[in-house]
Sequence to fold (327 residues):
Amino acid sequence: MNAPFPSTAAGRNPDPRLPLKLLIAAPRGFCAGVDRAIEIVERALQKYGAPVYVRHEIVHNRYVVDSLKERGAIFVEELDEVPDDAPVVFSAHGVPKSVPAEAQRRNLLYVDATCPLVSKVHRQAERQIEKGQHILFIGHAGHPEVIGTMGQVPEGMITLVETVEDVANLPFTQDDDLSFLTQTTLSVDDTREMVEALQARYPQIVAPKAEDICYATSNRQAAVKSIAPSCDLVLVIGAPNSSNSLRLVEVAQRLGTDARLIQRASEIDPSWLEGVGTLGLTAGASAPEKLVREVVDRLSDWRVVEETPVVTTEENMVFKLPRQLTE
Fold:
């Protein structure tokens, strides 16, 4: 850690004479599922005209949501807020089966923007239930993806597990038919610990055919792991309700590096840069690259910034759009 350097009395601004080495992690920012969800709303606005209703934030980023609002999107939490004659888009996080069922009952025109990797978990849940397995679902209570996934199966057939401690309190035995699934935006390390705890207590538990944590979540966490040990501070651009962004902060902190979540460059306190010679920067999967450049510009107001991209892998995933928007 570099030694603290002088600051001005008013506002404690960092010394502009000292260069700031900026390690910018890659991959960062938008993933294929987020790109697809945003394009779905944009195309729906083009095809159907404004307003287009969106159930829940299409992705967890205020800048994105506000940009779509300006173009005519109206965000609501429940279908009963959607007029009968208006199109509605379901968010990238997925929804319980009851939501499209209600939309069909009302003859609503709806477009499902659920990330295909979340939909994959939904299909796995259905298959596990068909096999008579009770699902232990690793995730965070109240997160829309968790609500959506748990809403794919009959009530009482799935149990949420949030911590290793929860595993010890589960009422099941080694004679029960069990399987597990996970939320796609969890900490890779935390999830590994919880899976190991489940498998230790229930050797018979059936794992999903492939890991549920999505490629973008894993890649962004790996990228932070590659820069955090070299940094005095890591900034993560993302929303406080963005699971994958919060996990990036935790990844850096567990490596002993101070880390902070910000939504916009305006939230940066220049005093944070006192004693910082090397700063890490990344963005959650719902944060656009424009916000990354905004942060770099803001930092340049205070210090001479020396940018170094740190690329740990290349991403080229692309998801198809719903047919109803491409015909």
Observations:
- Residues 1-12 have pLDDT under 50 and may be disordered.
